[in-house]
Amino acid sequence: MITRRSLLFLFVYVAVGVRCGNVIDSSDNTIDESVAVEVEIAKYEADFLQEFDHYQSTGRKTSNFDRLLDMIKSPDIKVTLDRMPHTKNPKICLTCLSSSYTFMEIYKRTEKKEKALLVKLAQDICHLYSLKPYVCDGLIALNADMMMFILGHLDELPSAERVCAVAYQGEDCVLDRPYILSDRYPKVNISSSQNVLKTSKRASIPSNKEPLTIIHLTDIHYDPEYVVGINADCAAGACCRHVPDLEPADSANAAGFWGDYRDCDSPWHAVVDAMEQIRTQHPKIDAVYFTGDIIHHFTWNTTVASNEESMRQIFQLLKERFVDIPLYPILGNHESDPANLYAPHHVPAKLTSAYLYDFIAEQWDDWLPKEVNRSTIADGGYYTVLSPLGHRIIALNNNFCYVHNWWLLYSDIYFIRQLQWLHDTLQESEKLGEKVHILGHVPSYDNYCYIGWTREYRKIVDRFAHVIEGQFNGHSHVDEFNVYYRRDDPTAAVNVAWNGGSTTTFTQLNPNYKVFYVDRESFEILDHETWIYNLTEANQHPDRKPLWFKEYTFKEHFGLTDLSPKSLDALLQKLAHSEADLRQYWNVKQKNSDPMLSRGCDKTCLRDALCAIARTEYSDDAACERLLAQPTDA
Fold first, then answer.
1. Which of 118, 158, 225, 498 supports an S-S bond with 241, CB 3.0-4.6 Å?
2. Three-class SS of residue 211?
3. pTM tops 0.90
4. What is the pLDDT at residue 207?
C-alpha cells in the first residue's frame, strides 16, 4: 500500500499529468527524425536532474538538455524504455519519471521546505514541457495545499518509478507488475453464498407488461463562459472561452454555436436543448439516471463557488424538466475543487470533501426520499434507495478510484469502506429478494481506475451477479458497454455495464443520451437506444434547433434476441470473428462523429476496442485473449 508514502513530484505531476496528450506536441528537435532512441531510465533521470540544475543556475539550456527534452516533446522521435518494455506510451512515462525524480532529489536537499519555494520549483519544471504556462501555474496553485500536506506527512520516499506505476497505471508505466497487483492490499470481506453464478447468465422470461423507460444522462460538462465564434483551437487542453494568449479566430477555428468537436465543453443553450429534446421525444419517462460530470474541463481555473453555481444551474434545470419523475444523481470526477480530488476521511478540515457532500445533500434533497440514509452522502457522496418502481438503486462515488485523484498517493485503501458498504447493501438486497441497478461514474474497465478498486469491485460483481440487473457508467464520453466475466472463468459472462456516453461534444464526439427499456418485474435491461445529432450539420444552421435522431437500437443493430450476459458474450465472439462487425461497433461507440469517422480505426485500434469490452479489471486480459484466439475475417 502507499498509505503515507506519497510522492514528491506531486507539484509537477498534477500539471503535466492532467492532459497527457499535451506533453507530446510538435517542436523543433535536434535529433534526426529517423532516429529511434532506447532510453536507460536511471541514466536519463540522473542526466535530466544535472541539466535542470545547470539551467536553474545559469538560465540557459545546454544542447544536451534540449536533446533530453526532445525525446519527450518531439513526435518524430520514437522512444523505448529499458525497464518498461510494455508501456503504451513511453514518452508519457518518461515525462512522469523525469519530473518526479528531479523534484524529489531537489526536495531532499532543500532545508526549508516552504510552500512558495516548492511551488516555484514545480512551476519551473512544468514549464519545460509543452503545457501552457498558465495551465501549469493554475493547477499547481490550486493543488498546493493538498500537496504540501502530503509532502509533510511522508514516512519514506517512494521511487519515481513506483509513483509512475500508480499515477500512470493507464499507460502501463509499470516496472514491477506483481507489486501493483499484490494481494497484500486490504480486501472487501466477501460473504459466501450458494447463489453465485458459475456459468453465463441467461435472460429470464420477460413479463408481458409495458417496459419501464429510463433515461441515462451523463457528462454534461457545462461551460458557463463558452463564447460562440471564439478560437476553438487554443492548444490549452480546453478551449472555446477566453484564455490567455488566445489568437483571433478565423472561419476554420471558430467555435460552433451548438458546441465544437475540438476541446470544448457545452454552452448553456445546448444543455437546455438536450433536456427539451428528451421531454418532447419521450413523454412517458419512469426514471432518470444521471451519472455525473457537470463541471467544465478548465481544471486550472476552478473555484468552489463557480463549481457550485454551475451545479446549482444544472440541478435546477433537471428539476424543472423532469418534474415528478424519480431522478438519481451521482458525482463525477470534475465536481470537486480542485478537479478529481476526493479526500480520505482523516485529513484537515480545509482539505476534506465535506463541503461538496454538504452541498449535494442539499441539492439532491428533492430527489431522495426521507428514508434514505444521508450519513453515507456525508461520509463519501454515495447512497442507496428503494425506487418507487420496486428495484434498489445503489449510487456510488467511485471517483476515489480515478488515478488523477492525487489522494490515492497518500492512501490507496481508503475507498475500501465504501466497497464494503456496497457488498453489505447487496447482501441485504439478496436476503430481501431485491433487484439492483448500480450507478458509478468511472467504469471499472477504465485503466485509469485504480487496480485496488477494480479488483475488489469485480469480486463483488462476481458474488452478486444474480442480484445486479444493470450497471450504468459515464466518464469515457463514448457509447460502449462492458461484459463482466468470472474472475476464475473467462468464459462465464455474468454481468453487464452500460456507458451513457455524453451530452457534451468533448472531444470530437456528437452529443447523445440513451433510453433504456427495463422489465417491470425482473428489472433486466430489455433493450436500449441512443439518440444523437450531427454537430457539423447543427452548426451549419445556428438559427434552428439541432436535428436529433435515433442513431440505433441495440438489439436490432447487433441482431440479438436479448441483452443477457450470455447473449452479449456471443456478440463479442462474433465481433472477434468479423472485422466488419467490429468496425460497425466502433462507429457507434464513437457516435458516428465526423472527425472520428475521418480518423478511422486500424486493426490495433479495433483489437483494443474489443478488449475494452471484455476487460473489467486492470491488467486482467484473460477474457480478451480468449476472444482474440479466434480467427478473424477481413
1. 225
2. coil
3. yes
4. 76
For residue 110, cis peptide bond before it (omega within 30 degrees of 0)? no
Torsion of CA 292, 295, 301, 302, to 10 degrees: -80
Tell which wins on pLDDT, 328 or 38: 328
Residue entry with cell 495551465: 135
Buried b (16+ CB within 10 A) or exposed e, 360-392: beebbeebbeeebeeebbebbbbbbbebeeebb
Q: How far is CA 129 from CA 24, 52, 67, 97, 244, in A?
A: 8, 13, 13, 13, 18
Q: Find where cell 433486466 sits.
A: 524
SS3 of residue 528 by DSSP: strand
What are the residues facing 225 on neighbouring strands?
A: none
Cβ neighbours, 10 Å, residue 489: 15
Three-class SS of residue 492? strand
Query: What pLDDT does residue 152 have?
Result: 84
Measuring CA to CA, which residue among 513, 473, 472, 497 is closest to residue 266?
A: 513
Note the pLDDT of residue 119: 93
Helix (H, G, I), strand (E, B) or coil at 395: strand
pLDDT in tens, 387-436: 999 999 999 999 999 999 989 888 888 999 999 999 999 999 999 999 99
Task: Give dist(CA 533, CA 544) in Å, integer.
Answer: 13
- pLDDT for the residue 581: 97
Strand (E) or helix (H) holding 408: none
pLDDT digits (tens, 9 = 90+) for 114-166: 899 999 999 999 999 878 999 999 999 999 999 889 888 877 766 788 788 88
What is the C-alpha to C-alpha distance for residues 311 and 319, in angstroms, rounded to an integer? 12
